[in-house]
Design brief:
This protein is α+β, with helices and mostly antiparallel strands. It has helices spanning 82-95, 104-122; strands at residues 6-8, 16-23, 30-38, 56-63, 68-69, 76-77, 131-137, 140-149, 152-158, 162-169, 178-180.
Length: 189
């Protein structure tokens, strides 16, 4: 991997787990990754009852990349940005959110609508839907954009060498700190 991955710092003493990764369209380059902390979100309608107290925070690391041409010459990829980290975090929160059983097409319509809304919000990080929050990244205070919804919270900002996003539910974002992960062993089990 050609960029550092971030997770929660040592103040987090709970469970850690691997999330997903995203690659470039040609599959040759990892462009972002998710590292989870706490309970893994359950995607079962009945098990996702908020009364069950699922608590999690997921950190999204997006590689800093300039606009670039695909290796096969078929197109260009845009430069990565904090907005991309915010959108990935917002979309991640949506995938961790289930409601009472819905007819499949209605659920897909809801998900499409919410995903589009997440992109619109991520594209306007200075807008009124977001507030400011300062959190430590490798021990240094860094500004983030933060928003809460009925589904949980989302935040996005920068590290020196990557764009960061995070989402969670049942865990306060205000007490989090981020650090470069050099030992992935705690995430493996």
């Amino acid at each position: 991997m050609d960029f550092p991955w971030y997770g929660l710092d040592d103040a987090w003493t709970g469970r850690r787990w691997y999330g997903t990764t995203g690659t470039s369209p040609d599959g040759r380059t990892v462009d972002y990754g998710f590292l989870g902390h706490g309970d893994e979100p359950v995607r079962s309608y009945l098990a996702q009852d908020p009364a069950e107290g699922r608590r999690f925070a997921v950190v999204v690391t997006v590689a800093r990349r300039e606009a670039r041409r695909l290796e096969n010459g078929t197109g260009m990829l845009e430069a990565t940005s904090v907005s991309a980290a915010a959108w990935l975090a917002g979309s991640g929160l949506l995938t961790a959110t289930e409601h009472a059983p819905m007819e499949r097409s209605l659920r897909q319509d809801w998900l499409d609508q919410q995903t589009a809304l997440a992109w619109d919000l991520a594209d306007d990080l200075d807008g009124p839907a977001w507030s400011s929050l300062t959190l430590p990244v490798n021990g240094t205070p860094q500004p983030f954009r933060y928003r809460e919804s009925e589904y949980g919270w989302v935040l996005a900002g920068n590290a020196d060498d990557a764009h960061l996003g995070a989402y969670g539910r049942g865990v306060s974002a205000y007490g989090l700190g981020f650090t470069v992960i050099t030992d992935f062993t705690p995430y493996a089990g």
